[in-house]
Amino acid sequence: MELHVIIKGRKDLAEQLYQQLRTAIESGQLAAGAQLPPSRLLAEQLGVSRKTVSDTYALLTYEGLLVGKVGRGTFVNAWATRSEHVQGAADLACAANLAKWQALPSPMHHPTRDGTLRCEFIGGATTRSQFPQDEWRRCTQDALRRIAHNSGFYSQPEGLPALRSAIAGHIAFSRGVKCRDDDIVVTNGAQQALDLIARVVLEPGTIVAMENPGYTPARLLFDAMGATVVGVPVDEHGIQVELIPDGTRLIYVTPSHQFPLGMPMSMPRREALLARAFELGAIVIEDDYDSEFRYEGRPTDSLQSMDTRGVVTYVGTFSKTLLPELRLGYAVLPPAIHGAVLKAKQLTDQHTSTLPQWALAKFISEGYLLKHIRRCHTVYAGRRERILNRLAGDLSPWFEAVPTVAGFHLAALCKVPVNIALLIELARKVEVGLYPLDVFFHEAPVRSGLILGFGAIETLDIDPSLDKVRNILQKIG
């Protein structure tokens, strides 16, 4: 890559070069630590003598803007760049809106690699050791070959036909979802699916009803779009449908594995919810985020499979079954909003990257996904059993588990007052990551407790980690 310097005419060559390099350094165009071309190479590019370039480098070095390193070359000095005054957030006309976005919390923000503790009970994360690297590598290599033979044009906003067909077959088999390939749009994770649906359904001030407690990132998204988010209490049967307010336009639920408490929505409650949504003219988002992993009882069909009136949008993700970093999700759209969501998808990011789409399509069609789910199911079942045994044993003076039959997290409610913030702080000092339950409550009353994910923590680490938690609880009372 050539250094962007323009020499005009044949006069004052050294001065022209000096001024342009100095301006580039002080403005930050040439970043601190950037290496300049060797004097001979730059002289050839500019059509000037090497002495002109060498003298300019020497003068800038004398002024402290450049630094020469023996055997390596000439570099921009780390402290030489000078930034001009730029507008701060408070100077802008949109300052209030920026402040609103910056003030949004991040209750499910995953730690960085450097910030990860040895034993993490974080929800929504999977065990990397269980990921089928060899199978995924073969599928990715096949995807690269396919892309190499493509035309180079943008792809379809709804996703590759091969992947949509594979998804339709998978969710019909595993969740009883009734759909055609054309009903599916592939998204960058389930969160984008929620964003797209909300974009076309909501207007500022319209009412969104969602479970309380519920999935906070969804609530924050709807709130950021200007909606009025109403938390509807849940009981052992799921969302209390009779409390969904009049005027509601969007209803967000997690019926197969209520987030974060874990109980499934009962059949009568599901029927009541569908009837209430039809009465209101509302769209229901069914977020089926981790129900592939079921440990007890008969499997329950999706809410979407019961929908005969076209009010349910089924949202799923592969972040929980494979890896969160893949960012692949999907939505099964009812006819009423299908066209609008596709337009929104095209306007926001054109389409999801086709490389992972091709790889996932092959991964599903070759049977690798179902094999991976079965393998993980065995692992997660053992981890879940270990945690439940401890909550029913030596941790029972402080916590009780909420009955749950699916997923790979469970909620532990406090039986006695516990300083959860102090418990989390002290646990981090002994390399145990704990996470509070109260951040998922939108409105009072708030229940205190922990959300214990068992996807990321290794099985052999569970008991030693919970031993440390018990010891801390004994100390803090």
Could you characterize what this model shows?
This protein has 477 residues and is of the alpha/beta class. The chain has three domains: 64 residues, Orthogonal Bundle (Arc Repressor Mutant, subunit A), CATH 1.10.10.10; 114 residues, Aspartate Aminotransferase, domain 1 (Alpha-Beta Complex); 236 residues, Type I PLP-dependent aspartate aminotransferase-like (Major domain) (Aspartate Aminotransferase, domain 2, 3-Layer(aba) Sandwich), CATH 3.40.640. The protein has 14 helices and 15 strands. It has an eight-stranded mixed sheet with strand order 4-11-10-9-8-5-6-7, with helices on both faces. The chain has a three-stranded antiparallel sheet with strand order 12-13-15, with helices on one face.
Mean of residue pLDDT?
90
Derived structural class: alpha/beta
Strand content: 5-15%
Determine the oligomeric state from the structure. single chain
Total number of helical segments?
14
- Assign a percent range to the helix content: 40-55%
Specify the CATH architecture of the largest domain: 3-Layer(aba) Sandwich
How large is the radius of gyration?
Answer: 28 Å
Distance between the termini: 64 Å
What would you call the shape? Answer: globular
Count of folded domains: 3
N-to-C SSE string, H for helix and E for strand: HHHEEHEHHEHEHEEEHEEEHHHEEHEEH
Task: Output the strand order for the largest sheet.
Answer: 4-11-10-9-8-5-6-7
Q: Runs with pLDDT <50, length 5+? A: none
**CATH superfamily caption of the largest domain:** Type I PLP-dependent aspartate aminotransferase-like (Major domain)
CATH topology of the largest domain: Aspartate Aminotransferase, domain 2
Query: In the CATH hierarchy, what is the class of the largest domain?
Result: Alpha Beta
What is the strand tally? 15
Major sheet size, sense and barrel closure: 8 strands, mixed
